[in-house]
Amino acid sequence: MFDQDEDRNRENEGVRWDRGQVLSQMFAEPVWAVRNLVSLLDSECSVPFISRYRREKINEIEPDKLRRMSLANEELKGVVKKATAVLVKLEKEEKLTPEIQAALESAQSMDEIEEIFAPLKSASKKSFAERARQNGLEALVGEIERNVEVVDFAAFVKKEEKDVDSEKKVKKSVVHLLAEKFKLDGEIVSHLKALCHELPVLLKCSRAAPKASTADSKKEPSRGDKEHGRGQDSDREAMKFERFFDSTDHVRNLHPHQIMAINRGEALKYLTVKVELSEAIYERYATFVRRKAIRRDATPACREIVETAIKDAYDRLLEPKMARMIRTELKLRGESAAIDSFSRNLKSLLLLPPVGGKVILGIDPGFKHGCKMAVVGRNGDVLDTLVCYLHSGSAEGKRFVRFVDDSECDLIAIGNGTACRETETVVASMLQRRLFRRSDTLAFCIVNESGSSIYSVSELAVRELPEMDANVRSAVSIARRLQNPLAELVKIEPRHLGVGMYQHDLPEKKLDVNSVGKRDFIQQVSQYRKEHRLEQLADALETEVAVVRSLFEFLQQRTDFDYRSAFQMPLFRRDIRRAEDLRVGDLLTGQVENVTDFGAFVDCGVSITGLIHTSKMRLAGRQVDLEIGDRVVVKVERVDVGRQRLAVSLSQRCQPVP
């Protein structure tokens, strides 16, 4: 354990909290472990290094969680820096009051700082409280807090000032000042936050009213409208959020994927969303503030003003603040789960086993611009290419058959984008009719093509395939993804690989093979292990014996060793079934394409991707964790051809074939 008192005190010269404590609460980890983590991160130790070699210092926090904590730590460092800068600025401008200083020093997010700072900016419209302060009404607040017998509001009336030109307006301005004090009071805000986490809070969603004016209808659709499917497809896109057109949910009961869907629907202006705090929250908040702000012997005049301020502070300042806080917490919960899902799926995708020693035909399907095709040899070299309009007539079909026969390919890899199912149907039909010379042995499979178009126009693709048209490069990528997924997929940014619930940026991993795997290297490692005890090496590296043992085991593997060989091979097919022919209870063999927190998507060899809901992901009464590439047998539960939906349940998880 590290001594961080000095570092923590140095950091906290501007805020009333330390990052270790806050992160500990956010991620439910021991304070000592999180403070050690903060110290390591501040010392510029990387997440992989900490995860591998400092696990005992951080309570063996899982790598995925460690990455999230590292990002949160950077955000908190930004908050400290921002709060300090705002405090200095306000002090120079002589706008810093004890209440504002306390609020800024307690703020733990950029939103909180901005909320406090916004009314005080020179160019911004002054808040009600700021205007009241400029009119000298703080003296009246002091009288009320001292519980004077008679509060002389009339003495502060200024006919030339619109905000205080009557006794009624003076009272209202005093209420605004008191309301601001309650809003900036750390104890009140903390108590209200606790109430929001304890008592019912609802999230109400409804369908947003379409903005259809004559002027707007004549405008050219914006790029955003086109990208998000507004216009003629707007209603169809909006129906994706049908579940939330008239919904009321307790925020604690919302699943992460529902939160992400609500946020997306709101961003696309298909949904309006409102946070509703229960009446019990207000009642307990008001009771707390009364005890804090109203003396037992308070005069009726003072009591009335403070009671009004308690209500005004809640309605105008604190309830909206809590609503924003809850939306932020929901967003973080949804994004955290989405990042977890993305991380797990990315790992499974990169570890898909290679299909080596085969000549593979890759097809990037299409209608208008044709199917782009490329044949790659056993070592990944491009042997031939073709653009074939496979869906435009028999002549192109014959051309495709000749191309397949001439290439003598062993397998066909079809990208899963536009025209995938139609292309799959054509290939399956040709195989069933034995149109190819090698129809008895030829097979096809569906390959995730996400990011192939981005790769095709990248600098790397231009260097690798300089003379090739960009459209055909994507077909090369599809074929190579089947041949050696890891080698091809690392060429593309992870966020473009289309796995998980939503795409997020994650730290890139760099591979450095150097001389690892060569015979001399293996002999040197073996000799070194004989001469040194694992315990000594673990002490020298400040890590665990198990970590050192694992390193030795991997470093002594041959160059032809492939960790991925233990995983499921791709599922190759020779025919497909029509969704219209499926019946409830039918058994289908498929392969998992993607896993989310609500279920797993499975390619079942039909025109619709199947979904195993988490409630149906059980075998022998136990929940089963599926990964991309897992081969499964599923039972048809429901088919809706019109809506292109296929619900299935897990019947069997197939074991990898050695």
**What integer is the average pLDDT?**
81
Tally of alpha and pi helices = 26
For the secondary structure, the number of strands is 15
Oligomer: single chain
Which sheet architecture does the biggest sheet show? 5 strands, mixed
What Rg, in angstroms, do the CA atoms define? 32 Å
Share of β-strand residues: 5-15%
Overall morphology = elongated
Provide the spatial order of strands within the biggest beta sheet: 6-5-4-7-8
Q: By helix and strand content, what is the structural category?
A: alpha+beta
- Give the helix level as a range of percent: 40-55%
| End-to-end separation | 45 Å
Regions with little confidence, pLDDT below 50 for 5+ residues: 1-11, 213-230, 504-518
Walkthrough of the structure:
With 658 residues, the protein is of the alpha+beta class. The protein is built from 26 helices and 15 strands. The chain has a five-stranded mixed beta sheet with strand order 6-5-4-7-8, sandwiched between helices. Strands 9-10-11-15-14 form a five-stranded mixed β-barrel. The protein has a three-stranded antiparallel beta sheet with strand order 2-1-3. A hairpin with a 4-residue loop joins β14 and β15. α2 crosses α3 and α25 packs across α26. The longest helix is centred in the middle third of the chain and has 51 residues, at 300-350. The protein is elongated and about 105 Å long. It starts with a helix and ends in a 5-residue tail after the last strand. The model is unreliable at 1-11, 213-230 and 504-518 (pLDDT under 50).
